[in-house]
Predict the structure.
Amino acid sequence: MIGPNRPQDRDNFFGATLLPCGSHCGPPLGSKPPRIQPPPHSLSPTASATASLRQLLDSLSREQRRNQELLASLAFALRSFTNLNRFLELVPLVAARLMEADGALLLPFQANGQLWRDQFQGTPPDRSRDLLRQLAGLNDTSLLASAGEAGLVAHLDQLVAQHWGEGAVVGTSVVARSRQRGRLYVFGPAGGSGWSNGHRRHGQLVADLTGVALENDALLQERRRHERLDRQLSTGAEIQAQLLPDHCPVIEGVELAARCRPAYLVGGDYYDFIPTRPQLQGRGREQGRWALVMGDVMGKGVPASLLMTLLRGMLRAEVLTGFPPDRILHDLNQLAQEDLAHSHRFVTLFYSDFDPASRLLRYANAAHNPPLVWRRQGQQVERLDAPGLLIGLEEEADYGCEQTVLEPGDVLLCYTDGVTEAAGISGERFEEQRLITCLQEACCAGLGAQAILDQLFARLDRFVGRDRPLEDDASLVVLKVKELPALASLPS
């Protein structure tokens, strides 16, 4: 580069052109003389200050545009990247450039407060590699147990400062939802003048965006976990629906209707119709003895559903023995004792068997809600109950056995406590008496089993509110003995 004090520079600066001797050195005749610019050293102090100020403003404007572009690129990565690792790789680079630093280091924490070693990031790689290796070797259990979260941060600050040596180090916390989610360090040269408040604000802004990214990733992982759980629950609900009878069997002389409405996707209510002689087919099965069961596992959701499935298998095996209801409940209680004790849950169960030929109903009750019988003859409702403890409460529990004959037109209603304990808008419970009243109205109207079931659930929905879910699983089973056909009277 040519210096400003050399003659040729001054000549060129003034706009003159050196020509060989004998040539015309002046401007053409009739033309305006060239406009002569003053040399730099001849500028006034005011003009010189203005030029310097203009250069400073241009420099600040360029720096501002650069910072805006860096922050914009980080924000774009935050909303565009679905891979957290790709975003975290940019954080030290952007922080170092924004603060005009020699390097930067990002140490994120996991949700449980431990170091997230897989996501450690540093720049420049050659200088941060040893430090990252040293930090990755820390024992999380001893750190958190001895000093907690604050002690972990202080220990990290000390290690980073010792490793960097004489250079300036600035550390800021990565926070999300008022929780410490990491530390961001920025390194400067030894003996440097430090960083301005603007630089520090830029570093804090990068740390805050990092906290948002970590929280977004945690929410995304939580949503995916819930989606997997929902899929599993949906599969469980399908399996449970297959375990419950998809339709009521044909039993000679009676109409059947049943429905289970779980509070969640899966539930602990259980009802079943089991032939005591499954080897019979066709009309022989329709005329044979059938077991009618209504049960309720304490609790809701997946645990209750799993226990209900286990109980169903045990009970179906017991029915094949042909024992009376009290013996079946006794044996079932002993079989399920160990499994129910481990789960700390109990089961209420009403078990009965019905003979279509004699219309005799034998039953035993393990502390379940007593079924209701509407008698057509007196148009009154009776409760069917028998002594007995919960299944799983005592290993040697005894159960009583009762029996009754269902006459033509009589209606048997089995239900779970999710029906009578359903809460209305005012907080009042549906209760047994309201169920009895609704049953009498439906039976006096001469409705069939399915129509009675539909009317009872419709009345329950109106009481609870159609847009409000049930607090517990609700199940109903309706058995109506068909009325004998009336004989036509002969003319006199």
User: Anything to note?
Assistant: Residues 1-34 have pLDDT under 50 and may be disordered. The longest helix spans residues 197-243.
